[in-house]
Amino acid sequence: MTEEKEKEVKQEEQGPETGCDEPAGADAESPVGAEEESPLREEKRENGEGRCELQEPPAEGDAESEFVHPEGGWGWLVMLAAMWCNGSVFGIQNAFGILFLSLLREFGSEDDDDLRFKTAWVGSLSMGMIFFCSPIVSVFTDILGCRITAVGGAAVGFIGLFASSFVTSLGPLYFTYGVVFACGCSFAYQPSLVILGHYFKKRLGLVNGIVTAGSSIFTITLPLVLSRLLESAGLQYTMRMLSVLMFILMLAGLTYRPLLPAKPRPSRPGSPCPPFRQVFNFNIWRSLGYRIWAFGIPAALYGYFVPYVHLMKHVEERFGADANKEVLLMCIGVTSGVGRLIFGRVADYVEGVNKVYLQVSSFLVIGLMSMMIPLCNVFGGLIAVCLLMGLFDGCFICIMAPIAFELVGSDNVSQAIGFLLGLMSVPMTVGPPIAGFLRDRLHNYDVAFYLAGIPPLVGGAVLCLIPWVERRRRQKEQEVNMKMLDKKNNQAVC
Asked: In this predicted structure, what is the pLDDT of residue 266?
């Protein structure tokens, strides 16, 4: 018998060559039987019992590696839409210092300490709710997609801001501006970070820098526009004009067309709803690096929003009511935009989680500059402080998403960012009211700004642990992989 005939006889006895240790007859069943057995096969593969590589469904990581990011095309339009989102959401939030003074005049007196404390809570509640809602937003983003979540959020934000223009007392403003408008901003904002990962990978740092620069552009221009609108049209009409920005944001969200393959979300038998573990992705907390990051960032932000709310009033008290205080917000906005473009591009060249060191340096400078604000007895010195603070503020913001991608991967990045922003809500909310309380008791903002500089220094020191932790994790993974490879080689030899 020739060798060819011997091979044919063996193939008839063993079945077709599939490279699988399981018998070929297992696949010769009816489609129903195959469907019933497929979960068992998957479980075997997960436990290492089966070795059939050809019949395995592609893993999520493999599907992601096969996906080629366009690095442009429609993505540039998505980038511009996300840029408008960042600008309209945080431009309005950062300009609350201008609205703060107008609210004091509208509902009472600037010299009323009690009213100042209550009014500061409007801006703090609004900023805090944007971050507090983020874990919920991440779940909606995973289930409904970026487009529906963003458009719906912009619509809610428009309703809240437009309704705020009709209130006649401070109380309803807590709900319309502090809750409804802020929740809409949260649902519109987070998808703008996630959708960028569908179109860009190599240029993700640069694109995030350009997108986050949108808030800088709005922070530069809105104070001047708002000051003139408030003088000529009043508070109510100014808020109605701001609601137009949210209406445009609804149209911008329509461009968020997803590209990455959606993750399979099996539902429970007899229920259309996915399991709880599929809705809330707790796998991200298994990463020690992410846990440190999720603790260090909020710890650094207790004083972050204090200058945006109280710097205008501090300038009036230190340099007089005629001081050109809007210039300071412009300085922060200009250099923050420059910093986002510069450090966003630099982040593309920094390997892996070493990007965290950029955030550490930004917190160090922001903390020191906050402490320098009370020491500036010359207006020019305050301008220099704001320029530096804005530059490194841009560094901190633009690399948030790239670091999240590095720590948890693109499959988990939506909820990783969501949970982080949710944890950031507490320090962003309580910081400014505490600063206002200290000012009322001590009759100046000096101690408030000194204390606002301490949390960024502490948080930055905590973040320094992340690269070390991630290096150790990779070393252990390499050791485990080498042991498994050696074991397979020994089994093959045997």
From this structure: 53
